[in-house]
Protein backbone atom coordinates (compact mmCIF):
# COMPACT_ATOMS: atom_id res chain seq x y z
CA UNK A 1 0.00 0.00 0.00
CA UNK A 2 1.42 3.35 -0.88
CA UNK A 3 -0.78 5.25 1.50
CA UNK A 4 -2.20 4.03 4.76
CA UNK A 5 -3.85 6.11 7.37
CA UNK A 6 -2.82 5.61 10.91
CA UNK A 7 -5.81 5.00 13.13
CA UNK A 8 -4.41 7.52 15.57
CA UNK A 9 -4.29 10.40 13.11
CA UNK A 10 -6.59 13.32 13.68
CA UNK A 11 -8.93 12.94 10.71
CA UNK A 12 -12.24 14.11 12.14
CA UNK A 13 -14.95 11.51 12.52
CA UNK A 14 -17.79 12.13 10.10
CA UNK A 15 -21.34 10.99 9.56
CA UNK A 16 -20.82 8.76 6.54
CA UNK A 17 -17.84 7.07 4.92
CA UNK A 18 -18.40 5.97 1.34
CA UNK A 19 -16.07 3.16 0.29
CA UNK A 20 -15.58 2.87 -3.45
CA UNK A 21 -13.54 -0.09 -4.68
CA UNK A 22 -12.05 0.66 -8.07
CA UNK A 23 -10.09 -1.03 -10.74
CA UNK A 24 -9.55 1.02 -13.88
CA UNK A 25 -12.38 3.44 -13.33
CA UNK A 26 -10.54 6.73 -13.89
CA UNK A 27 -13.15 7.94 -16.38
CA UNK A 28 -16.06 7.35 -14.04
CA UNK A 29 -14.53 8.81 -10.89
CA UNK A 30 -14.87 12.49 -11.86
CA UNK A 31 -18.64 12.32 -12.46
CA UNK A 32 -19.10 10.08 -9.40
CA UNK A 33 -17.32 12.50 -7.08
CA UNK A 34 -19.34 15.35 -8.55
CA UNK A 35 -22.62 13.57 -7.79
CA UNK A 36 -21.47 12.63 -4.29
CA UNK A 37 -20.40 16.26 -3.85
CA UNK A 38 -23.97 17.35 -4.55
CA UNK A 39 -25.22 15.00 -1.82
CA UNK A 40 -22.60 16.45 0.52
CA UNK A 41 -23.70 19.99 -0.33
CA UNK A 42 -27.21 18.89 0.60
CA UNK A 43 -25.96 18.75 4.18
CA UNK A 44 -24.47 15.28 4.66
CA UNK A 45 -21.10 15.20 6.39
CA UNK A 46 -19.28 12.55 4.41
CA UNK A 47 -15.91 11.27 3.29
CA UNK A 48 -15.09 9.15 0.25
CA UNK A 49 -12.46 6.42 0.41
CA UNK A 50 -11.45 5.09 -2.97
CA UNK A 51 -9.61 1.79 -2.79
CA UNK A 52 -7.82 1.28 -6.06
CA UNK A 53 -5.85 -1.82 -6.95
CA UNK A 54 -3.02 0.01 -8.62
CA UNK A 55 -4.90 0.62 -11.86
CA UNK A 56 -2.18 2.81 -13.39
CA UNK A 57 -4.82 4.47 -15.53
CA UNK A 58 -4.60 8.00 -14.23
CA UNK A 59 -6.67 7.42 -11.10
CA UNK A 60 -3.96 8.75 -8.77
CA UNK A 61 -3.38 11.85 -10.88
CA UNK A 62 -7.10 12.49 -11.13
CA UNK A 63 -7.72 12.33 -7.38
CA UNK A 64 -4.66 14.51 -6.75
CA UNK A 65 -5.89 17.09 -9.25
CA UNK A 66 -9.39 17.14 -7.79
CA UNK A 67 -7.74 17.86 -4.45
CA UNK A 68 -10.76 17.59 -2.19
CA UNK A 69 -10.01 17.07 1.50
CA UNK A 70 -12.95 14.68 1.92
CA UNK A 71 -11.82 12.37 -0.91
CA UNK A 72 -9.05 9.92 -0.08
CA UNK A 73 -7.32 7.42 -2.29
CA UNK A 74 -5.78 4.20 -1.07
CA UNK A 75 -3.71 2.47 -3.71
CA UNK A 76 -3.14 -1.19 -2.99
CA UNK A 77 -0.22 -2.85 -4.68
CA UNK A 78 -0.14 -6.20 -2.94
CA UNK A 79 -3.68 -7.50 -2.62
CA UNK A 80 -6.27 -7.59 -5.36
CA UNK A 81 -9.97 -8.23 -5.46
CA UNK A 82 -13.21 -6.42 -4.87
CA UNK A 83 -14.14 -7.84 -1.47
CA UNK A 84 -10.73 -7.44 0.08
CA UNK A 85 -10.59 -3.86 -1.28
CA UNK A 86 -13.88 -3.13 0.47
CA UNK A 87 -12.59 -4.55 3.76
CA UNK A 88 -9.44 -2.49 3.40
CA UNK A 89 -11.53 0.67 2.91
CA UNK A 90 -13.79 -0.15 5.85
CA UNK A 91 -10.77 -0.47 8.12
CA UNK A 92 -9.79 3.08 7.18
CA UNK A 93 -13.22 4.66 7.52
CA UNK A 94 -14.12 7.23 10.16
CA UNK A 95 -17.87 7.48 9.61
CA UNK A 96 -20.67 6.55 11.95
CA UNK A 97 -22.37 4.99 8.94
CA UNK A 98 -20.46 3.02 6.33
CA UNK A 99 -21.58 2.84 2.72
CA UNK A 100 -20.09 0.72 -0.06
CA UNK A 101 -20.77 1.46 -3.72
CA UNK A 102 -19.41 0.82 -7.20
CA UNK A 103 -17.44 3.47 -9.02
CA UNK A 104 -19.04 2.99 -12.41
CA UNK A 105 -22.19 5.06 -11.70
CA UNK A 106 -24.40 1.97 -11.62
CA UNK A 107 -25.38 2.96 -8.08
CA UNK A 108 -27.05 6.36 -7.49
CA UNK A 109 -25.37 8.20 -4.57
CA UNK A 110 -28.51 10.32 -4.24
CA UNK A 111 -30.24 7.59 -2.22
CA UNK A 112 -27.60 7.52 0.53
CA UNK A 113 -29.75 9.78 2.78
CA UNK A 114 -32.49 7.13 2.45
CA UNK A 115 -29.97 4.51 3.59
CA UNK A 116 -29.24 6.56 6.71
CA UNK A 117 -32.93 7.08 7.41
CA UNK A 118 -33.50 3.31 7.18
CA UNK A 119 -30.59 2.59 9.53
CA UNK A 120 -31.80 5.20 12.00
CA UNK A 121 -35.25 3.67 11.71
CA UNK A 122 -33.97 0.34 13.05
CA UNK A 123 -32.45 -1.50 10.09
CA UNK A 124 -29.14 -3.34 10.69
CA UNK A 125 -28.20 -3.32 7.08
CA UNK A 126 -29.38 -1.60 3.91
CA UNK A 127 -28.94 -2.71 0.34
CA UNK A 128 -29.68 -0.71 -2.79
CA UNK A 129 -32.04 -3.12 -4.49
CA UNK A 130 -33.15 -3.68 -8.06
CA UNK A 131 -35.80 -6.19 -7.10
CA UNK A 132 -38.17 -4.32 -4.79
CA UNK A 133 -41.04 -2.11 -6.01
CA UNK A 134 -39.54 1.06 -7.41
CA UNK A 135 -36.24 -0.63 -8.23
CA UNK A 136 -35.15 -1.39 -11.77
CA UNK A 137 -32.29 -2.38 -14.02
CA UNK A 138 -31.40 -0.38 -17.08
CA UNK A 139 -31.95 -2.23 -20.33
CA UNK A 140 -28.91 -3.72 -21.93
CA UNK A 141 -28.40 -6.67 -19.62
CA UNK A 142 -28.13 -9.67 -21.91
CA UNK A 143 -30.27 -12.74 -21.22
CA UNK A 144 -27.18 -14.60 -20.08
CA UNK A 145 -26.18 -12.06 -17.47
CA UNK A 146 -29.78 -11.94 -16.27
CA UNK A 147 -30.03 -15.76 -15.89
CA UNK A 148 -26.67 -15.75 -14.21
CA UNK A 149 -27.79 -13.16 -11.70
CA UNK A 150 -31.02 -15.06 -11.01
CA UNK A 151 -29.21 -18.35 -10.35
CA UNK A 152 -26.70 -16.60 -8.11
CA UNK A 153 -29.53 -14.92 -6.20
CA UNK A 154 -31.31 -18.23 -5.78
CA UNK A 155 -28.15 -19.83 -4.40
CA UNK A 156 -28.05 -17.18 -1.69
CA UNK A 157 -31.57 -18.07 -0.51
CA UNK A 158 -30.50 -20.33 2.38
CA UNK A 159 -28.61 -17.42 3.88
CA UNK A 160 -30.93 -14.46 3.47
CA UNK A 161 -34.38 -13.56 2.23
CA UNK A 162 -33.11 -10.29 0.76
CA UNK A 163 -34.41 -9.98 -2.77
CA UNK A 164 -31.22 -8.51 -4.15
CA UNK A 165 -28.45 -10.17 -2.13
CA UNK A 166 -26.06 -9.71 -5.07
CA UNK A 167 -26.09 -5.96 -4.65
CA UNK A 168 -22.81 -4.18 -4.10
CA UNK A 169 -24.50 -0.99 -2.85
CA UNK A 170 -24.54 -1.35 0.94
CA UNK A 171 -25.02 0.64 4.11
CA UNK A 172 -24.58 -0.29 7.78
CA UNK A 173 -23.55 1.16 11.10
CA UNK A 174 -19.94 0.95 12.20
CA UNK A 175 -20.90 -1.34 15.12
CA UNK A 176 -22.51 -3.79 12.73
CA UNK A 177 -19.31 -4.11 10.76
CA UNK A 178 -17.30 -4.36 13.98
CA UNK A 179 -19.48 -7.30 15.08
CA UNK A 180 -18.54 -9.40 12.05
CA UNK A 181 -16.88 -12.74 12.78
CA UNK A 182 -14.69 -14.82 10.45
CA UNK A 183 -14.90 -12.43 7.49
CA UNK A 184 -13.59 -14.22 4.46
CA UNK A 185 -13.43 -11.91 1.48
CA UNK A 186 -13.55 -14.30 -1.45
CA UNK A 187 -14.89 -12.95 -4.73
CA UNK A 188 -17.45 -10.21 -5.26
CA UNK A 189 -20.28 -10.65 -2.83
CA UNK A 190 -19.10 -8.75 0.18
CA UNK A 191 -22.70 -7.68 0.88
CA UNK A 192 -23.86 -11.27 1.31
CA UNK A 193 -20.77 -12.02 3.38
CA UNK A 194 -21.48 -9.12 5.74
CA UNK A 195 -25.20 -9.88 6.07
CA UNK A 196 -24.38 -13.46 7.10
CA UNK A 197 -21.29 -12.89 9.23
CA UNK A 198 -22.72 -9.86 11.05
CA UNK A 199 -25.87 -11.91 11.67
CA UNK A 200 -28.04 -9.09 10.39
CA UNK A 201 -31.72 -9.50 11.18
CA UNK A 202 -33.32 -6.40 9.78
CA UNK A 203 -32.14 -5.85 6.25
CA UNK A 204 -33.93 -3.06 4.44
CA UNK A 205 -33.94 -2.80 0.67
CA UNK A 206 -33.97 0.70 -0.72
CA UNK A 207 -35.10 0.65 -4.36
CA UNK A 208 -32.54 1.85 -6.88
CA UNK A 209 -32.34 2.17 -10.62
CA UNK A 210 -29.23 0.19 -11.59
CA UNK A 211 -27.62 2.04 -14.51
CA UNK A 212 -25.48 0.40 -17.14
CA UNK A 213 -21.89 1.58 -16.95
CA UNK A 214 -20.92 4.27 -19.46
CA UNK A 215 -17.15 4.05 -19.04
CA UNK A 216 -14.71 1.17 -18.88
CA UNK A 217 -15.60 -2.49 -18.61
CA UNK A 218 -17.15 -4.82 -16.09
CA UNK A 219 -14.67 -6.91 -14.15
CA UNK A 220 -17.12 -9.75 -13.63
CA UNK A 221 -15.00 -12.53 -15.14
CA UNK A 222 -15.64 -16.27 -15.19
CA UNK A 223 -13.06 -16.60 -12.44
CA UNK A 224 -15.08 -14.26 -10.24
CA UNK A 225 -18.22 -16.31 -10.93
CA UNK A 226 -16.46 -19.52 -9.92
CA UNK A 227 -15.27 -17.79 -6.76
CA UNK A 228 -18.92 -17.27 -5.94
CA UNK A 229 -19.42 -21.03 -5.75
CA UNK A 230 -16.52 -21.27 -3.32
CA UNK A 231 -18.07 -18.43 -1.36
CA UNK A 232 -21.45 -20.21 -1.12
CA UNK A 233 -19.76 -23.42 0.08
CA UNK A 234 -17.84 -21.49 2.73
CA UNK A 235 -20.96 -19.68 3.90
CA UNK A 236 -22.86 -22.97 4.12
CA UNK A 237 -20.07 -24.54 6.17
CA UNK A 238 -20.03 -21.52 8.43
CA UNK A 239 -23.75 -21.19 8.92
CA UNK A 240 -24.87 -24.83 8.76
CA UNK A 241 -21.81 -26.85 9.76
CA UNK A 242 -23.77 -30.02 10.61
CA UNK A 243 -25.72 -30.24 7.38
CA UNK A 244 -22.70 -29.22 5.34
CA UNK A 245 -20.98 -32.28 6.72
CA UNK A 246 -23.83 -34.79 6.79
CA UNK A 247 -25.16 -34.19 3.27
CA UNK A 248 -21.79 -34.77 1.56
CA UNK A 249 -21.26 -37.78 3.84
CA UNK A 250 -24.53 -39.33 2.69
CA UNK A 251 -23.80 -38.53 -0.98
CA UNK A 252 -20.31 -40.01 -0.75
CA UNK A 253 -21.88 -43.07 0.90
CA UNK A 254 -24.24 -43.47 -2.06
CA UNK A 255 -21.40 -43.06 -4.51
CA UNK A 256 -19.59 -45.78 -2.59
CA UNK A 257 -22.52 -48.15 -3.17
CA UNK A 258 -22.14 -47.67 -6.92
CA UNK A 259 -18.38 -48.11 -6.74
CA UNK A 260 -18.77 -51.29 -4.71
CA UNK A 261 -21.30 -52.85 -7.08
CA UNK A 262 -19.13 -51.99 -10.05
CA UNK A 263 -16.07 -53.51 -8.40
CA UNK A 264 -17.91 -56.74 -7.59
CA UNK A 265 -18.93 -57.04 -11.19
CA UNK A 266 -15.45 -56.22 -12.44
CA UNK A 267 -13.70 -58.62 -10.10
CA UNK A 268 -16.03 -61.45 -10.95
CA UNK A 269 -15.61 -60.88 -14.67
CA UNK A 270 -11.86 -60.66 -14.31
CA UNK A 271 -11.03 -63.23 -11.65
CA UNK A 272 -13.99 -65.56 -12.16
CA UNK A 273 -13.58 -68.88 -10.38
CA UNK A 274 -9.87 -68.42 -9.74
CA UNK A 275 -10.39 -66.44 -6.57
CA UNK A 276 -12.96 -67.22 -3.95
CA UNK A 277 -16.11 -65.16 -3.79
CA UNK A 278 -15.36 -64.09 -0.23
CA UNK A 279 -12.01 -62.69 -1.22
CA UNK A 280 -13.59 -60.79 -4.12
CA UNK A 281 -16.08 -59.23 -1.76
CA UNK A 282 -13.31 -58.30 0.66
CA UNK A 283 -11.23 -56.67 -2.09
CA UNK A 284 -14.24 -54.70 -3.29
CA UNK A 285 -15.03 -53.57 0.25
CA UNK A 286 -11.43 -52.51 0.87
CA UNK A 287 -11.23 -50.37 -2.25
CA UNK A 288 -14.63 -48.84 -1.56
CA UNK A 289 -13.58 -47.91 1.95
CA UNK A 290 -10.55 -46.08 0.63
CA UNK A 291 -12.83 -44.28 -1.84
CA UNK A 292 -15.23 -43.25 0.90
CA UNK A 293 -12.43 -42.19 3.20
CA UNK A 294 -10.80 -39.93 0.64
CA UNK A 295 -14.00 -38.18 -0.38
CA UNK A 296 -15.39 -37.95 3.14
CA UNK A 297 -12.20 -36.41 4.39
CA UNK A 298 -12.25 -33.88 1.58
CA UNK A 299 -15.95 -32.99 1.41
CA UNK A 300 -17.62 -33.93 4.70
CA UNK A 301 -14.80 -33.41 7.21
CA UNK A 302 -12.99 -30.54 5.52
CA UNK A 303 -12.28 -28.86 8.85
CA UNK A 304 -10.04 -31.69 10.02
CA UNK A 305 -7.76 -31.87 7.01
CA UNK A 306 -4.72 -30.71 8.91
CA UNK A 307 -4.81 -33.67 11.31
CA UNK A 308 -2.94 -36.94 10.81
CA UNK A 309 -4.37 -38.85 7.87
CA UNK A 310 -3.04 -42.18 9.13
CA UNK A 311 -4.77 -41.89 12.49
CA UNK A 312 -7.94 -40.79 10.71
CA UNK A 313 -7.84 -43.73 8.31
CA UNK A 314 -7.44 -46.26 11.10
CA UNK A 315 -10.27 -44.67 13.06
CA UNK A 316 -12.45 -44.56 9.98
CA UNK A 317 -11.89 -48.26 9.30
CA UNK A 318 -12.69 -49.13 12.89
CA UNK A 319 -15.94 -47.18 13.00
CA UNK A 320 -17.08 -48.40 9.59
CA UNK A 321 -16.39 -52.02 10.40
CA UNK A 322 -19.92 -52.61 11.67
CA UNK A 323 -21.80 -51.67 8.48
CA UNK A 324 -19.02 -53.29 6.47
CA UNK A 325 -19.60 -56.61 8.22
CA UNK A 326 -23.35 -56.28 7.65
CA UNK A 327 -22.63 -55.51 4.01
CA UNK A 328 -20.28 -58.48 3.65
CA UNK A 329 -22.79 -61.02 4.92
CA UNK A 330 -25.76 -59.59 3.04
CA UNK A 331 -23.79 -59.55 -0.21
CA UNK A 332 -22.51 -63.07 0.31
CA UNK A 333 -25.91 -64.40 1.19
CA UNK A 334 -27.51 -62.78 -1.85
CA UNK A 335 -24.82 -63.93 -4.25
CA UNK A 336 -25.52 -67.44 -3.03
CA UNK A 337 -29.10 -67.13 -4.27
CA UNK A 338 -29.23 -66.62 -7.99
CA UNK A 339 -29.17 -62.81 -7.88
CA UNK A 340 -26.57 -61.29 -10.20
CA UNK A 341 -23.44 -60.06 -8.51
CA UNK A 342 -23.69 -56.26 -8.90
CA UNK A 343 -27.26 -56.31 -7.66
CA UNK A 344 -26.17 -58.29 -4.62
CA UNK A 345 -23.50 -55.67 -4.03
CA UNK A 346 -25.96 -52.82 -4.32
CA UNK A 347 -28.37 -54.40 -1.89
CA UNK A 348 -25.64 -55.44 0.53
CA UNK A 349 -24.04 -52.04 0.50
CA UNK A 350 -27.38 -50.26 0.82
CA UNK A 351 -28.41 -52.36 3.79
CA UNK A 352 -24.99 -51.87 5.36
CA UNK A 353 -24.97 -48.12 4.68
CA UNK A 354 -28.51 -47.65 5.89
CA UNK A 355 -27.54 -49.45 9.07
CA UNK A 356 -24.57 -47.19 9.44
CA UNK A 357 -25.16 -43.82 7.89
CA UNK A 358 -26.25 -41.80 10.88
CA UNK A 359 -24.33 -43.87 13.41
CA UNK A 360 -21.18 -43.65 11.31
CA UNK A 361 -21.44 -39.96 10.73
CA UNK A 362 -22.01 -39.16 14.37
CA UNK A 363 -19.22 -41.42 15.59
CA UNK A 364 -16.74 -40.59 12.83
CA UNK A 365 -17.36 -36.91 13.43
CA UNK A 366 -17.00 -37.19 17.17
CA UNK A 367 -13.96 -39.47 17.23
CA UNK A 368 -12.12 -39.52 13.93
CA UNK A 369 -12.50 -36.08 12.38
CA UNK A 370 -12.61 -33.83 15.39
CA UNK A 371 -13.17 -30.14 14.96
CA UNK A 372 -10.33 -28.02 16.19
CA UNK A 373 -10.86 -25.10 18.55
CA UNK A 374 -12.23 -23.15 15.61
CA UNK A 375 -13.45 -24.91 12.49
CA UNK A 376 -12.40 -22.49 9.79
CA UNK A 377 -13.68 -22.19 6.23
CA UNK A 378 -12.75 -23.96 2.99
N1 LIG B 1 -10.22 -2.47 -5.84
C1 LIG B 1 -10.85 -3.31 -6.70
N2 LIG B 1 -10.28 -4.50 -7.00
N3 LIG B 1 -12.03 -2.94 -7.22
C2 LIG B 1 -12.63 -3.79 -8.08
C3 LIG B 1 -12.09 -5.04 -8.43
C4 LIG B 1 -10.82 -5.40 -7.86
O1 LIG B 1 -10.27 -6.47 -8.12
N4 LIG B 1 -12.93 -5.66 -9.30
C5 LIG B 1 -13.96 -4.80 -9.48
N5 LIG B 1 -13.78 -3.69 -8.74
C6 LIG B 1 -14.67 -2.52 -8.65
C7 LIG B 1 -15.01 -1.93 -9.98
O2 LIG B 1 -14.06 -0.98 -10.39
C8 LIG B 1 -16.36 -1.30 -9.69
O3 LIG B 1 -16.22 -0.05 -9.06
C9 LIG B 1 -16.97 -2.26 -8.70
O4 LIG B 1 -15.88 -2.95 -8.10
C10 LIG B 1 -17.92 -3.26 -9.36
O5 LIG B 1 -17.27 -3.90 -10.43
P1 LIG B 1 -17.99 -4.11 -11.84
O6 LIG B 1 -17.02 -4.81 -12.71
O7 LIG B 1 -18.61 -2.85 -12.32
O8 LIG B 1 -19.08 -5.13 -11.39
P2 LIG B 1 -20.44 -5.48 -12.05
O9 LIG B 1 -21.10 -4.29 -12.64
O10 LIG B 1 -20.29 -6.66 -12.90
O11 LIG B 1 -21.20 -5.97 -10.75
C11 LIG B 1 -21.99 -5.10 -10.05
O12 LIG B 1 -23.25 -5.68 -9.95
C12 LIG B 1 -23.34 -6.75 -9.09
C13 LIG B 1 -24.79 -7.15 -9.05
O13 LIG B 1 -25.12 -7.78 -10.21
C14 LIG B 1 -21.42 -4.77 -8.69
O14 LIG B 1 -22.25 -3.81 -8.07
C15 LIG B 1 -21.42 -5.88 -7.78
O15 LIG B 1 -20.99 -5.41 -6.48
C16 LIG B 1 -22.82 -6.38 -7.72
O16 LIG B 1 -22.79 -7.49 -6.90
MN1 LIG C 1 -20.59 -2.37 -12.77
Number of contiguous helices: 12
Rg, nearest Å = 28 Å
Give helix % range: 40-55%
Mean of all residue-level pLDDT scores: 89
- Strand content is 5-15%
Distance between the termini: 27 Å
Bound molecules: guanosine-5'-diphosphate-alpha-D-mannose, manganese (II) ion
What is the number of E strands?
9
Q: Please, could you describe this protein's structure?
A:
The chain is 53% helix and 11% strand. It has 378 residues and is α/β, with parallel strands linked by helices. The model is unreliable at 1-8 and 374-378 (pLDDT under 50). It has twelve helices and nine strands. It is elongated. The strands form two sheets. The protein has a seven-stranded mixed beta sheet. The protein has a two-stranded parallel sheet with strand order 6-9. Guanosine-5'-diphosphate-alpha-D-mannose is lined by residues 21-23, 25, 51-53, 80-82, 85, 102-104, 106, 149, 166-168, 188, 213, 218-220.
Sequence-ordered SSE layout with sheet pairings:
Blueprint: E1 16-22, H1 26-41, E2 46-52, H2 59-66, E3 71-75, H3 82-92, E4 97-100, H4 112-120, E5 125-129, E6 136-137, H5 143-155, E7 170-173, H6 174-178, H7 190-197, E8 203-207, E9 209-210, H8 222-239, H9 241-271, H10 277-300, H11 309-336, H12 341-368
Parallel strand pairs: 1-2, 1-4, 2-3, 5-8, 6-9
Antiparallel strand pairs: 4-7, 5-7
Helix pairs in contact: 1-2, 8-9, 9-10, 9-12, 10-11, 11-12
Residues 21-23, 25, 51-53, 80-82, 85, 102-104, 106, 149, 166-168, 188, 213, 218-220 line the site of guanosine-5'-diphosphate-alpha-D-mannose.
Amino acid sequence: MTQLHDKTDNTPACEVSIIVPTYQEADALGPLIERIGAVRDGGLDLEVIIVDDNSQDGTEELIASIGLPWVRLITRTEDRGLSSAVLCGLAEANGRVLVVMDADLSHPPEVIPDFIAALDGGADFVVGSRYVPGGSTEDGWGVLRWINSKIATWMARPFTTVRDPMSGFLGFRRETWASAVDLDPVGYKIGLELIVKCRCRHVTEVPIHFSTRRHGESKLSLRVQLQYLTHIVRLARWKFPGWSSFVPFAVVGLSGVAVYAFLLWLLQAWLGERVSEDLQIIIAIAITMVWNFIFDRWLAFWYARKQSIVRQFVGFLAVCSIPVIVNFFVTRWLIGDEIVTPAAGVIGALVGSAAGVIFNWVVVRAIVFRAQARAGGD
